[in-house]
Write a structure and sequence with these properties.
The chain contains 4 helices and 7 strands. The protein is elongated and about 95 Å long. Strands 3-4-5-6-7 form a 5-stranded antiparallel β-sheet, with helices on both faces. Strands 1-2 form a two-stranded antiparallel sheet. The longest helix has 89 residues. It has one domain. The N and C termini lie far apart (103 Å). By secondary structure, it is an alpha+beta fold.
Length: 234
């Protein structure tokens, strides 16, 4: 029994020693394959993170740029509104402005109404859209506002040449438009006639990246001055 045990044991050990070189030959190739796969996965993971960071940075840049453009559009719309106020203060008859659409002092027909990302602005079509919006919100019946084109032009023309400095350079990317309408609370049933020395003004600025900002106001003339009755922006 002792001899049998020794022979069996010797045979088992010999078999293990014969298989060991084969396993050793196979393992390096398997290890290299696993390492290559891991390296590929790590590369893909790092690339995905890098792409996500680039996309996030680009998105934040666009958001910041869009916010800056909206801020500029609002400021330019307000500048045009002030310009219209000056013209209205000097206009002797607001009914003439409402009925015939008599224009203000800021009308630049020589310069095309072209804005980056907007292309060529169609002012009659814009006026029609403004009127349609007013009709949709009309709760005054025949006293509902009838908007008339009053002022328009490249925003940098709002200032005399060289007077605005760097602001005018940025403003050259914008185009501004203003309309006037009768005060609907007047109650005379005729939006083409002013009877209470109060009118509405809507000023809009159009800029790059299809930026658009509108400012609305109602003003009343009293004792040679203009009083602000309403102001809205958006």
């Amino acid at each position: 029994m002792t001899m049998t045990w020794m022979t069996s044991g010797s045979s088992g050990c010999a078999g293990s020693e014969e298989e060991a070189p084969e396993r050793a030959a196979r393992h390096p190739r398997a290890n290299r394959g696993v390492a290559l796969l891991m390296a590929l996965l790590v590369t893909l993971f790092v690339s995905a993170i890098g792409g996500a960071l680039v996309l996030l940075a680009s998105t934040e840049t666009r958001i910041a740029g869009g916010e800056e453009l909206r801020h500029e559009a609002r400021g330019l719309a307000e500048v045009l509104l002030e310009r219209v106020f000056q013209d209205l203060l000097l206009a002797p008859d607001w009914s003439a402005v409402l009925a015939a659409g008599a224009g203000g002092s800021f009308q630049d027909s020589a310069s095309p109404a072209r804005v980056p990302s907007w292309g060529l602005l169609d002012l009659p079509a814009l006026t029609l859209n403004v009127q349609r919006e007013a009709d949709d919100l009309n709760r005054w019946g025949p006293d509902g506002p009838r908007w008339r084109l009053y002022a328009f032009g490249p925003a940098d023309r709002l200032w005399p040449a060289g007077a605005a400095g760097p602001a005018a350079g940025r403003a050259s990317m914008f185009y501004v438009v203003a309309w006037v309408a009768d005060d609907p609370g007047e109650g005379d049933g005729n939006p083409a006639v002013d009877r209470n020395e109060a009118v509405q003004v809507r000023a809009e600025a159009f800029g790059p990246l299809r930026t658009r900002w509108a400012v609305n106001a109602t003003v009343r003339r009293k004792s040679g001055t203009l009083q602000l009755v309403f102001w809205g922006s958006g």
